[in-house]
UniProtKB/TrEMBL annotation:
Name of the protein in its database record: PadR-like family transcriptional regulator
Coiled coil feature spans: 58-85
Ranges of residues in domain Transcription regulator PadR N-terminal: 2-66
Pfam families documented for this protein: PadR
Species the sequence originates in: Hyphomonas jannaschiana VP2
Alphabetical UniProt keywords: Coiled coil
InterPro entries to which the protein is assigned, alphabetical: Tscrpt_reg_PadR_N (IPR005149), WH-like_DNA-bd_sf (IPR036388), WH_DNA-bd_sf (IPR036390)
Length: 138
């Protein structure tokens, strides 16, 4: 993903989430150590971008990416398989709705994290939705 364009760690997390339809969302505890390892190997370079760092592929990284093209293709296929899953317990329309809900919740809470009334309203809405979904019967 860094070979496509320079990215922040958070951008990488969101891109993986988007490419898997929300089926997999890596944690910062996975992404940032991986980025540090890539820096140590010399395969990426970091540029300050305000308080964050933007990562881009180095010349050494481009050579490694080319050498590992087959492995990368398998990884990309696994991500695509998550997105295109046709398992009945994992339909894309439901995954998409869950992904949109998750982001709406995060945006609502992060916009005003100290607003206890807002947080309670979000929690109440989620509880009501959970109860309605749990109550669905054949």
């Amino acid at each position: 993903m860094i070979s496509e364009e320079p990215r922040h760690g958070y951008d990488i997390i969101r891109e993986i989430e988007a490419r898997t339809g929300g089926a997999y969302v890596p944690s910062p505890g996975v992404i940032y150590p991986a980025l540090e390892a890539l820096l140590d190997l010399g395969w990426v370079e970091a540029e300050a971008d305000g308080a964050r760092r933007s990562f881009k592929l180095s010349k050494e990284g481009e050579a490694e990416l080319e050498a590992e093209a087959e492995t990368l293709a398998r990884i990309e296929q696994r991500l695509a398989d998550l997105l295109d899953s046709d398992r009945p317990e994992d339909p894309q329309d439901v995954r998409g709705a869950m992904w949109r809900l998750r982001h709406a919740v995060q945006e609502a809470v992060r916009a005003q994290p100290d607003d206890l009334d807002r947080r309670k309203a979000v929690a109440d809405i989620l509880t009501e939705a959970q109860e309605k979904i749990a109550g669905l019967k054949d």
